TrEMBL record:
Ranges of residues in domain Aconitase/3-isopropylmalate dehydratase large subunit alpha/beta/alpha: 2-267
Record protein name field: Aconitase iron-sulfur domain-containing protein
Gene3D superfamilies found in the cross-reference section: Aconitase, domain 3 (3.30.499.10), Aconitase, domain 4 (3.20.19.10)
Residue ranges constituting the Aconitase A/isopropylmalate dehydratase small subunit swivel domain according to the UniProt record: 370-442
């Protein structure tokens, strides 16, 4: 919708600081670092609904590839996003890109000297070792040595969280371990440039010699769609980002690790600490291969695009009357009444909307037929019986950003979801699509809200009642819910939608245009930001 209106709305989140100190050992990359963070601090706790800013002297030892993996898996940590303070490594990485479009007009961000954080947590990189996150939780993290010897039915290196340098180091581990024997496994790089680099350096042949199949770049086993699915009861080791129940295939048991650990484990198909193989690698050769640039980054055609003006004044000229009317999908009543269906913590998007059914379902009603397809199979029957208001614990909607997780609840008749906390993207998608979601942390509510108890939600009065006790929720979300979602809001207000709705909440919520940040020069880089 931001592309249509040139505007967007969001709640400004808190920022927590993860301060890295110490130096990681040889062969330790971003995946093991973020697994250590998850193991120490757990998901959807300190980072929930916050931006995570990674700082500290330890950053000098983390390459941009390592930072990429850490930022990517900040979602599993519970953060809205993960950002790194730029330093010389960032500048070098961008400056050495071959394509001008990948290095021009770069702006480097840095916190103000007096920046304050909601919380600061220190992580000693010298304590990071090869880890495994055990099925089915990304934060159930143990050293590989504690998991060593566990039989594996398959290994997978790839998907978006596996950085280029991880695949390269994995190849060097395979090269050192080929004398130990090999088993067929599958590796799927995250992009075509990575495939090209592997071919040019000869490392693709090392993977093939070790029995790996190099698949088409993409998600592959990570989401268990198409032919790339694990079988029921199979124990597998993956270098991806999530290992929720049934994610990689119905009844499969997925564990997470770095590409290096997966490579070392592939020989005997048993979980293996890669340290003894890493110690045999020529580190100078490793650095050379890691810095090698593919011969041609122009693998994709130029794309012509048009940006919206983004100016508030322009949006004001587009009146709601200029937008075609569309039928409303909301009911005429602002009062929702139903019975509670109680769920637990960390209800994830894979459970709500299984990936293999998403590709065939193009409406709320169609995907709704597969809500909780593999677990909690009584859920749909209870919704039909009037248990249409979900009450859950912490981290509801964690996992991927798929909007189908909201669509499936709407499609099967769920009227409202109330939880102690929501994953950020799910909570963002819900009002946009018209699902009533309410965040309540008061323990008194959960004492009253037991399975089967009647509950009422009054959108007009901005509260809900259970056991005669009221609880309030946010006005902005309420407006989206009353209108039936962001599309219906656009049909009513046009391109002034966000401005109109925010201004109705009071003067403290009015939009402000961002000032243009200034680029910086040399080592004393400064960026002036105003929002």
């Amino acid at each position: 919708m931001a592309l249509v209106t040139g505007e967007i709305w969001f709640k400004i989140p808190e920022v927590i600081e993860i301060r890295f100190v110490g130096k990681p050992g040889a062969g330790i990359g971003g995946k093991d670092v973020i697994l250590y963070v998850l193991g120490q601090l757990k998901r959807n706790t300190v980072a929930a609904d916050s931006v995570v800013e990674y700082t500290g002297p330890g950053l000098r030892w983390l390459s941009c590839d390592a930072r990429f993996a850490i930022a990517n898996m900040t979602t599993e940590f519970g953060g809205i996003t993960g950002i790194f303070v730029s330093n010389s490594s960032t500048h070098t990485f961008i400056s050495t890109r071959k394509s001008p479009r990948n290095k021009s007009s770069s702006i480097y961000f840095r916190p103000d000297s007096d920046a304050t954080y909601a919380a600061t947590h220190e992580i000693d990189l010298s304590l990071v070792k090869p880890f495994i996150a055990k099925y089915p939780n990304p934060d159930d993290v143990v050293p590989v040595t504690d998991f060593a010897g566990t039989h594996l039915d398959g290994c997978f290196i790839g998907a978006c969280t596996t950085a280029e340098e991880d695949i390269i180091l994995g190849a060097l581990v395979l090269e050192q371990g080929l004398k130990m024997g090999k088993k067929p496994v599958i590796k799927t790089p995250g992009s075509r440039p990575i495939v090209k680099k592997l071919e040019e350096t000869g490392l693709a042949d090392v993977h093939r010699e070790a029995g790996f199949e190099i698949g088409t770049p993409g998600c592959s086993y990570c989401v268990g769609m198409g032919a790339d699915k694990a079988g029921e009861g199979e124990v597998r080791l993956y270098s991806q980002n999530r290992n929720f129940e049934n994610r990689m295939g119905r009844g499969s048991l997925g564990n997470l690790a770095s590409a290096v650990t997966v490579a070392a484990s592939s020989f005997d198909m048993r979980a293996t600490d890669p340290t003894h193989l890493i110690e045999k690698i020529d580190l100078e050769r490793w650095e050379s291969l890691r810095r090698h640039k593919a011969s041609d980054e122009s693998l994709f055609p130029s794309i012509a695009y048009v940006e919206p003006a983004g100016e508030l004044d322009d949006a004001e000229h587009v009146a709601a009357a200029e937008v075609d009317e569309a039928p409303s999908t909301t009911t005429s009543s602002s009062n929702i009444v139903g019975k509670i269906q109680k769920l637990g913590d960390m209800v994830n998007t894979d459970a709500l909307a299984t990936a293999e059914y998403i590709i065939h379902a193009h409406s709320n009603e169609a995907i709704g037929q597969h809500c909780f397809e593999y677990i909690n199979q009584d859920f749909r029957a209870k919704v039909k019986e009037g248990y249409n208001i979900v009450v859950a614990g912490k981290g509801f909607g964690c996992g991927s950003s798929r909007m189908e997780a909201v669509m499936t609840l709407l499609g099967y008749g769920v009227q409202c979801v109330i939880a102690e906390s929501f994953a950020f993207i799910f909570s963002r998608n819900s009002p946009s699509l018209g699902l009533v979601t309410i965040n309540i942390s008061d323990p008194a509510f959960y004492e009253l809200a037991i399975d089967g108890v009647e509950i009422s939600v009054d959108l007009e009065a901005n509260n809900l009642q259970v056991g005669g006790q009221p609880f309030a929720f946010s006005a902005m979300e309420r407006q989206f819910m009353e209108l039936g979602g962001i599309t219906q809001a656009f049909h009513k207000h046009g391109k002034t939608m966000f401005q109109t709705m925010v201004e109705s909440m009071g003067p403290t919520n009015v939009f402000r245009k961002p000032a243009k940040p200034t680029a910086f020069d040399g080592d004393n880089r400064k960026t002036q930001l105003a929002w």
